[in-house]
Design brief:
The complex is a heterodimer of chains A (141) and B (81). With 141 residues, chain A is mostly beta strands. Chain A has one domain: BH3618-like. Chain A contains no helices and eleven strands. In chain A, the strands form two sheets. In chain A, strands 3, 4, 5, 6, 7, 8, 9, 10 and 11 form a nine-stranded antiparallel beta sheet that branches. A two-stranded antiparallel ribbon of chain A has the order 1-2. With 81 residues, chain B is of the alpha+beta class. Chain B is built from two helices and three strands. Chain B starts with 10 loop residues before the first strand and ends with a helix. The chains are: A mainly beta (141), B alpha+beta (81). At the A-B interface, strand 6 and strand 7 of A face helix 1 and helix 2 of B.
């Protein structure tokens, strides 16, 4: 792949993303099968754990995501081997839900994004079982 | 909706690759075994719905929460130092 892909997000503005930086989720997100290509964007904040995940196919769709490790140490290592999260070049991101009271923001540990860094392809994995829910407080009281 | 009656141990085949087997019927519960290619994702309906709902909730709507989320995270970090 070469060149750049322009994404015009009504929320976040216009981004030109190198085509070889695009993440591909061939199955889409759960419940959003058409949301297959994403750009992972840094925010303007020099000091934040959060990044934007902006959908190329549906530019009105964007999420806040973060690396779960600082908040939930050992989380990725503890995921089932079948989801590929422990592979050498795997990257794990979790989607963050920010309510009106931002301090109560949560991470969806039940459905992380597991990306193979070698080919930038991944999927939203569902981790069944009682251990993880869709809402884990990032900053407990 | 196609409705089929099956006994314990009997099978329904969906297409060429998916086999749904009734393993046990007891009380109000049915145990099912599903054989399918790895590319076919199989979830309990309520789990799928919960993730779908959370994805919809997490999608950024009108306001960009980056500033608020970052500010709170930074404040919390300062407090813990």
């Amino acid at each position: 792949m070469s060149g750049t892909i322009r994404i015009v997000s009504p929320r976040l503005g216009t981004y030109d993303v190198p085509a070889d930086r695009i993440l591909e989720l061939p199955d889409g997100l759960v419940g959003l099968p058409d949301a297959r290509r994403f750009a992972l964007l840094e925010s303007n904040h020099p000091d934040t754990p959060f990044r934007y995940l902006l959908c190329v196919d549906l530019p009105e769709l964007a999420f806040l995501v973060c690396d779960p490790e600082p908040f939930f140490p050992g989380y990725a290592a503890g995921l089932p081997a079948s989801c590929g999260a422990t592979a050498a070049e795997a990257a794990v991101l979790v989607i963050v839900t920010v309510p009106d009271d931002a301090g109560a923001m949560t991470a969806n540990l039940m459905a992380p994004l597991v990306i193979d860094g070698a080919n930038r392809r991944g999927r939203q994995v569902i981790v069944e079982g009682a251990r993880f829910q869709t809402r884990h407080r990032l900053l407990p009281d | 909706m196609l409705i089929l009656t099956r006994k314990s141990g009997e099978v329904i085949r969906i297409g060429d690759d998916v086999v749904l087997r009734v393993l046990e019927v007891r009380g109000g519960q049915v145990r099912l075994g599903v054989e399918a290619p790895a590319s076919v994702r199989i979830y309990r309906e309520e789990v799928y719905r919960a993730i779908q709902r959370e994805n919809a909730q997490a999608a950024l709507t009108t306001a960009d929460p980056m500033d608020a989320a970052t500010a709170i995270w930074q404040r919390r970090r300062e407090r813990e130092r």
